Amino acid sequence: MTNIQTLDTPTLLLDHQKLLKNISDIADFANEQGVSYRPHIKTHKSVRIAQLQVEAGAVGITTAKISEAEVMAAGGIKDILIAYPISNPDKITRLIKLLHKGVRLKVSVDNPESLHFLQRRLEHTPYTLEVWIKVNSGLNRCGVEPGKEALLVAKAIMSHSKLKLGGIFTHAGHSYAAKTYEEIESIGLQEGLAVVESASECEQAGIPIPVRSVGSTPTFKIAGKVAGVTEIRPGNAVFFDAIQVGLGVTNIENCAVTLLASVVGVYKDRIIFDTGSKSLCLDKGAHGNQTVSGFGEIIGHPEVLIERLSEEHGVGVFEQKTDLKLNDKVQIIPNHACTVVNQFEEYVVHENGHVIDIWKVDARGMVK
Q: Where in the numbering of this chain does the D-serine dehydratase-like domain appear (predicted)?
């Protein structure tokens, strides 16, 4: 068997046992709470991993973009939520093609105007499109305000013959900016309530809301316990990363993805790795997270801080002596696994340091 230490670098490594443990942990939580599990695949972008999640009990998947949905559908995944607003006519044509292929599609809406675009393109087809209302639970990105604004969109959906209201959902991405776990707990509670209270507003007006869905890896085990929530959609929890460790969401031992890197330069005040911004990414969290130091955690070498990145160089500094030398190889836990995975074409899957398989990052670069 090939030892990972013999591989060329930089290489994207995936610990098979940690992956399966993380998938099982999410599925177990969903079963315990009596909620459905619809993981976001923007983290792993892999048909193989999506299939493992479905085998573990996921009712379907979530994607960010249509192109991701197209790749997953081609790989046999047939129940897909596209958690992104869509009104462009060309993109709606692509939605119709997915419906034609038998995909049980759901699409995010938060604007009555977008409903007209969807209705117009669907009118000359035999299909009805399921739409879910996105509510804003504090991230202040997409989404209507919970409650009465959600009801207005729900009423508008009911007036369109080619649209079917299937659920209400939200994403508490601002949890990544939390400074304490207590703050994450508060955000998670508000996340669940934003969905449940919006659904209640609609149902009091006679509009049923079958699915009440929450997301965000830091909060899904909090929002998922709110009475009335029926589904969770964590993405990053399949791998975890240094940001999740910094937030107190998980332990470093659960991080399934690492980058194998080589030492290419050793100097009296710094050490250089062959993992720059084109592999590790210049990411410390999209929503203001400050719980990470540097640009990745080097396993077994806490004395080295990756202080800065250029395109092909990771510059490490050390206050105490390090035994790393030229051509040594290390594993680096990335700050943000989602962006790092998108830089690579394949995972090298390993167990106990030995390569067991190669899996393609099928939806790499699918951003349209």
A: 256-351
C-alpha distances in angstroms, 320 versus 130, 292, 328? 58, 20, 18
Which domain range does residue 270 map to? 4-11+249-360
Q: Looking at the structure, tell me whether residues 262 and 228 fall in a common domain.
A: no
Angle, vertex CA 15, rays to CA 13 and CA 16, nearest 5: 125
Q: Which tokens sit at 347? A: 């995972």
Angle at which helix 181-204 crosses helix 148-158, to 10 degrees, equals: 40
pLDDT at 289 over 70: no
* Spatial distance between the Cα atoms of 301 and 3, rounded to a whole number of angstroms: 20
Identify the sign of the CA torsion 352, 358, 361, 362: negative
- Look at residues 238, 266, 282 and tell me which one is the last residue of a structural domain: 238
Distance from C-alpha of 104 to C-alpha of 226, rounded to nearest angstrom: 27
Distances 342 to 44, 192, 227, 273 between C-alpha atoms, Å: 8, 30, 36, 20
Residue 27 belongs to some domain of the structure: yes
Q: What's the pLDDT tens digit per position in 14-38?
A: 999 999 999 999 999 999 999 999 9
**Whole-model pTM above 0.90?**
yes
- Is there a single domain that holds both residue 165 and residue 271? no
30 within domain boundaries:
yes
- Residue appearing with tokens 């991993």: 49
End-to-end CA distance of the chain: 39
Neighbouring-strand partners of residue 225? none
In this structure, what CATH number is given to the domain that contains residue 131? 3.20.20.10
